Structures are given as structure tokens and as C-alpha cells.
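Hey L., structure's done. Input below.
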Amino acid sequence: MENVQRWRNALEQVANLSGWPYPSDAIVRSESMFIQEVVGVLFRKLIDTYSSIGKDLVGMVSRTKKVIELLGLGMDNARVVGIWGMGGIGKTTISRAVYDCISCQFEGYSFIENVREVLEKCGLKTLQEQLISEILMEKDLKVESNSHAVHMIRNMVCHKKVLIVLDDVDESTKLEKLVGEHDWYSFGSRIIVTTRDQHVLTRYGIKHIYEVEQLREDEAIELVESKAFGKHRQMGGYGELVRHVVKYANGVPLALEVLGSFLCGRNKDQWESSLNRLKKSPLSEVLQVLRISYDALKSEEKDIFLDIACFFKGKDKNDVTKILESCGFHPIIGIDVLVQKSLITISSNKLLMHDLIQELGWHIVCEESHKEPGKRTRLWCDEDIKHVLMDNTGTNKVEGIVMQYIYVRGLDPKDIHLRPKAFTKMSNLRILKICHMHLSEELKYLSNKLRYLDWLGYPMKYMPSTFQPKHLVELHLTYSSIEQLWEGTMV
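Output:
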């Protein structure tokens, strides 16, 4: 009897709902305009509801609002929305917040995390079974085959208003076999796909794409405070240190959370020590997340990425393209792939890269030889370059040397005397940029594979007679002592 009475009370409340009166001035205000007005009111109420439950998601409320706007809730047509950005930028957090906020409006819903990882470990059928089970609300549902699952999904979604979130999708995911075609869906169904690779979205015909922005400085400070100081959130003299953390993480929530949590409860000396250590040893938890994008690249794309990270960040795209082409790469498509995978950006025709992603590139190169820089493919740190050229420790592994500063820290240029024999072992050197380094004896060898040569203050009158720069595309010998390229006659 108690249940019957509850039903009666609920039905009475429903009957008393007034709703919105349809306007009599239908000529002035069309039915579609009226629907839009109703949707707007509901949307504002929805956002207000979310704002009250998302207080701990620093900086995510505004980003969640933008995704919900893209979803176009209230419209009868189906829609697919993509959330795109680099690793650790907050794609999963945003999609989960949206899902928690709007799933109650759908007849069936499913949130599938780590699609890439599950697909790799368990296969497509596992993902299909999870999707069908969650929408039908049946535990441990099994399907006979991939094709049988696709048939079930089509029959299921064409009669239901569903919400599906696929988190961390990459090129290996065949979205057509997981969620089918766009025209299968109706009744206001929505699909959200998060990815690091924009090409995944364009390949599936997704037109509504939200590129996740980095956190603003005030949002980043708030996030660090929440993790490092807990509920108190009082920096009390840690303000400058917090700003160093914010500058290092450069708007990436994952890095801010990891660093803030690590520094929680530590004194100022420990904060300073930790921040100094980051210069040589980046956060492993963050690098692990970022490296997923690198590991998905083809071999040539990895080389282009490492060249940009070590040598060409901030350089003109056209100039870098010429150099990379001369190295036998295909940089036009390669650079485009890196942009789509959120590893680089292009602004004012300059190749740009987030500091943490650049650190990833440095870390990958350093892994080639932890103790001996001369056994790495690329050298960009002045101290490592000085060690290799003055102590003759280079090998044929070295492909590029780019000195960052005119003066090596702590040394007068006049005191830097490299050993010319150091170049003898570096037969695969294709990029060389050094400055003011004097020779202890005559230079007799430079790699014939050099594509880019920039030697500020080159100390000799001639190039080595053995040097045949048939692959060279760019040469800079500013403030040098050179009088002519070679002594004598050269073919």
C-alpha cells in the first residue's frame, strides 16, 4: 500500500506541472523559435546544476559549458562532438563531467574509458559488449562476433535516444564498427569522442570539434593550491614557488595536479629542490601520458618530432621544411601529422611546441645514452656539446649538434678549444650549429652529410679539402675568418 500511495503522490505532482504555455502570437513567433526558447531555459538550468557539483574541477566548468553548447541539446537530430587536445590537458575530465551532467536526459547511455588501451589488450568485441551491456542495462552480455555486435548496436540505437562517450580514441579504433554510422542515430542521440589525434575526428566526419585550451594562470594557481595546500588553500609565503610550478606546467592540468600533490606537506627548501630537479629529471607520470602520442608515430615522424624538439622549436616552418626535405624526410605531411596529434602547433608560420612536450623529446634522446652524450643522435645542451667536442667523445650516432647560446655558461669563448678530430667519428652529422669554438689544430674533416652548417666565428681561412657539401642547403659563417671555401681548385 505504501508503494501505491507513493505512485499516487508522484502522479499528482506531475499533473500539477504547469509547463510553458504555447504563445498565441504564432505569426510573430514561430514554433521553432518557441522550442529554442524552451531549450535555452533548460540549458541554463542544466549549467547551473553542473556548476554546483563541479566545484573541485578547477577550470573545467567553462570548458564543459562549451562542449554542452556544441552538443546542441534539445534538438531532435543526432550529433557527434569531438574533444581534441594533447595528453594531460583534461579531455577525459571534461567528457566525464558532461556525461555526469546530461546522461539523465537519455534513455540509454555508456561511457567507455581508455578505448585505445582496451582495444589493444582485449580487442574490439570487448568494447562492443561493454557498449551494448551499458545501454541495455544488462550485465555481462556476450556477442557472437564483431559483425553480430554491429547489427545489435544498429537495432538498438535506431529506436533509442542514447548518449555514448568514447574516451581516448586513436587511429586503431574503427569507429564504424564500434558506434556505426551517423545516420543510424536519431531522436536527439549524442556521441562524444575524445582523442589526441584530430585526423580520427575528420576521418569519421565529425564537424563539431572542441580543442581544449590550457588553463589560465589564475586557474592553474587555484589548482596547485588545492592539491598542495588542501582545504586551507593558503600559500603563506609559497606564492613565488607556486608561480614557478605554474610556469613549468604551462597550463596542463595533469602536470599541475601531479606536482601539487607531490609538494603537499613539504617545506620551502624541499619545494625549491624539487623544482631544480625538474630541470634534469621531468615528471615521469606526465611523460608517460605524453609519450603515448609519440609512440603512435611512424619512424620518420618520430625523427621530425625530435628534430623540432631539439633544434627547430620557434623556427620558420618553410625554412625547417627545406632542411628536413634535404635530410630525406617528407616534412609537409610529417608536420601536419604532428599538428593533428597535438604534438606541435603553428602560429605566424612558426613551429611551436608545449614546454612539457619538448621535455619529452629531450628525455627520449637522453634515453639513447644516459651517461655519454656522444652516443646520442642529437645534442642541444651546451655542456654536452662542450664535452663531446673538447674530449673527442662523439660517435657515428650523432646526427645533429645545435648550440643554444653564443657563450657556453661559465667559460670565456677564447678558452674553448675543440679537438678537430672530434668530427672525424661523426660521419652521420647532418645539422651543425656552433659558435666561437677555437681549434686546437687544423680542421681536416666535416661530414659530407651536412645539410645545415652554422659556425659563428669559424676560425679557419678554408673549409677542409675533404669536405664535399653536395647535400648542404644552408650555410652561415658569420664573423668568421674564412677567405674562400677551399684552398686550391675544387671540382
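Confidence is low (pLDDT under 50) at residues 25-29, 406-411. Residues 328 and 467 are 20 Å apart (CA to CA).

-- N.
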